[in-house]
């Protein structure tokens, strides 16, 4: 039987605050994020999301291109912004270890990178998008 894990929820998060969604396996954490992303339909009620949303998935998604292109994801390269995000996402040491720094080619699904490197690149891409809400 299908069980609705998210029922009778009211959630208001003030701008500029940090909110952590925690709970047991199957409690609906991923479902809540997917509702906010509009990847899941609402069964009832309403949903209002005020602002631009950027998402860094739990399972990093990378495409075949350079590390830099995986971070920029089609957006223009802005040197100062890029450097700040690379520093904030702890990628500087990774770039020093990679043969061609951020111009290193990433294989399909990031197979040439460690799990931590893939996660940091995924996070940097999310932050580079300059959203109001980060999931």
Briefly note the structural class of the backbone. mainly alpha
The tally of domains stands at 2
Low-pLDDT regions: none
Number of helices: 5
Q: Estimate the mean pLDDT confidence.
A: 91
Q: Reading side by side through the largest sheet, how are the strands ordered?
A: 1-4
**What profile does the largest beta sheet have?**
2 strands, parallel
Span between termini: 29 Å
Helicity level: 25-40%
Please tell me about this protein's structure:
The chain is mainly alpha-helical and 135 residues long. It folds into two domains: 50 residues, no CATH class; 70 residues, no CATH class. The chain has a two-stranded parallel ribbon with strand order 1-4. The protein has a two-stranded antiparallel sheet with strand order 2-3. It contains five helices and four strands, in the order H-E-E-H-H-H-E-H-E. GO terms for molecular function: ATP binding; ATP hydrolysis activity; ATPase-coupled transmembrane transporter activity. This is ABC transporter domain-containing protein. It comes from Photinus pyralis (Common eastern firefly). InterPro entries: ABC_transporter-like_ATP-bd, ABC_transporter_C-like, P-loop_NTPase.
């Amino acid at each position: 039987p299908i069980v609705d894990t998210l029922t009778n929820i009211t959630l208001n998060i003030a701008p500029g605050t940090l909110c952590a969604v925690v709970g047991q396996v199957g409690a609906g954490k991923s479902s809540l994020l997917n509702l906010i992303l509009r990847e899941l339909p609402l069964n009832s009620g309403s949903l209002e999301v005020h602002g631009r949303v950027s998402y860094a998935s739990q399972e990093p998604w990378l495409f075949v291109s350079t590390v830099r292109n995986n971070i920029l994801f089609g957006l223009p390269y802005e040197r100062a912004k890029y450097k700040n995000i690379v520093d904030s996402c702890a990628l500087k040491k990774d770039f020093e270890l990679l043969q061609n720094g951020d111009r290193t080619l990433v294989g399909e699904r990031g197979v040439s990178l460690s799990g931590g490197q893939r996660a940091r690149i995924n996070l940097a891409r999310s932050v580079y998008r300059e959203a109001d809400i980060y999931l």
